[in-house]
Amino acid sequence: MLTISNLHARIEEKEILRGINFEVKPGEVHAIMGPNGSGKSTLASVLAGREDYEITNGTVEFNGKDLLDMSPEERAAEGIFLAFQYPVEIPGVTTVNFLKTAINEIRKYNGQEPLDAAQFLKKMKERAKLVKIDDTLLRRSLNEGFSGGEKKRNEIFQMAMLEPQLCVLDETDSGLDIDALRIVAEGVNKLRDEKRSFIVVTHYQRLLDYIVPDFVHVLYKGRIVKSGTKELALELEEKGYDWIKAEVDSLEVA
Amino acid sequence: MSSIENTDLKNQLLADFQTLQMQLNGKSLLPINQLRNEAMKNFAHLGFPTIRHEEWKYSNVSSLAKQNFNFEASSDFSNKDLKEIHLPHLKGNVLYFINGVFHAELSHIESPGDYLQVVPFAEAQEKMPEVINRYFGQYADYKNDAFTALNTALAKDGVVVHIADNKTLEEPVILRFIGDTRKEDVGSQVRNLIVVGKNAEVKIAEAYRTIGDNRYFINTVTEFVLFEDARADYYKVQNESDKTHHIGTTQVYQQDRSYFYAATVTVNGGFVRNNLNIVLDGEHIESHMYGLYLPSGKQHIDNHTLVDHRKPNCQSNELYKGILMDKSTGVFNGKIFVQQDAQKTNAYQNCRNVVTTDEATMNTKPQLEIWADDVKCSHGTTTGKLNDEAIFYMQSRGIPKKEAIRLQLLAFAEDVVSQIKIDSIKEYLEGLIVDKLAGLGK
Prior knowledge:
With 254 residues, chain A is of the alpha/beta class.
């Protein structure tokens, strides 16, 4: 589904991704972990098409297409979804109107007829229930005055509505207490199936107690320095990142 | 000197006034004509302001002052042209003014005569002398404001509206001012006087637009008097050509417990200056002012507001919003005076602007002068670009960038448009704004 090869990216003069390689197959859940500043969020942003980053080398293929050649909205229409670390407040635009526009733009891109009001409402009710988000919240301006937990739940709700193939969760656990975290993770788990894949970017292992990954990758200094299964996350939880840093840094010196 | 000396337009207007005086045929001693004479003397003395005049620092009328306009321009405008300037679901009392002159054959009065008296300004001296003699020129400043002086001296037509005491007008009064410049450069001066009796209520709109490609100069003055417990909604809507100079003053005088609610929306106009001046001369008065301006291309839109709190226990609230596109310019100047007597005043002012390009410019100046000590006043202005992160957020959900920008700007504008309580005007504006924002990012 997704193949990242030798991906290099920088912001202004600073090189942040320095040769990323990995592959995601349908139905897989990959966790990307790493210390602060390792490039985790950059990777998520680059996949979604944030313009602040310049791609200096490498390729990203999504279902056989060149992802890096697409605008953010094309990527969304092709089936990529980024759950933001800091969801944006948009005054005056309700979540309902926002999503109706988004869904119908994506349908238009894919040559489908727009959903009518009744179909849209039915889908909305269904998905709101699935991720346990309050209906009244959706009729308010998008994220405006929402608590941290409500914002993150709204991200998962949007994900449920847009039905992407590849979901990228950027530190979805940050700023959440354990109850909010559990609700968000439950929402994600309900959306897991054999076709939909996830890239879960997180600093801490605790999110992975709830969203259990198939693979864990450790990002450090813009490269994946270690890959493994969910046991690797537990090891990181126990030992921290220092032992990996030391290992990588000693190799660099040599 | 802060005025332009003996320019073409000024000479033309002075000559026009001489001609008019000679046609008065024995009526020159009527109070209205004495007032007009005095106003013309003031204009002759004041002249058109230059940018050295503090109130005109960012709005340069020197090019206007060099031009000539036909203030007597005829028009073939007829019923069949109404289609072109269609307003959706238009109903109520609708009055048409073509090049500043009332057209009875296009107009339609619905409300009963014991509720609403409406007389064209040109006939008001004869038909409503007591109203004219009592109120005309009593509020708008024809002594110090050159354009108001000019209008007071030379305005030919417009409307005088009187709402009787204790009457609530169900149907709105919609005044449509159409500049027909299909044949030549047209000048028009419109004068309105709106008197809302005690405990009476009215919704009134002034809708300005142009047809044709020649130049247009319109100078308007509307005087508004609200007696005790009167309520008025007032909407000024402008959709005029890039070749238009629109200078307009709305002067409002409020008495005890009256309520005034204004929304000024400028969608198009080459050079626009709106003055909205409100005097709160009583207690427990409420005044609300909303504004929205959407200049594009090289359009220039200037809103000056003045709120004069003279008595205690009143409230004023102001929100102006601008979307500035291309190389357009905007001005907001908001004065709030709280006089020594006006204790317990609440006065709020807010001006928020979005610029969509690096070349667009917005000048804002809040001016608060407070002489009372027990008041609550606040003001704030912001000018910035749309939030890139918000645009990216919408894009990341599949919404194309242009559409993301448009949706956010529409939401920004809706704050003001949603205040309008005449459905026809609101729907009309929503359509205009959608069309205007569709031109973004081409």
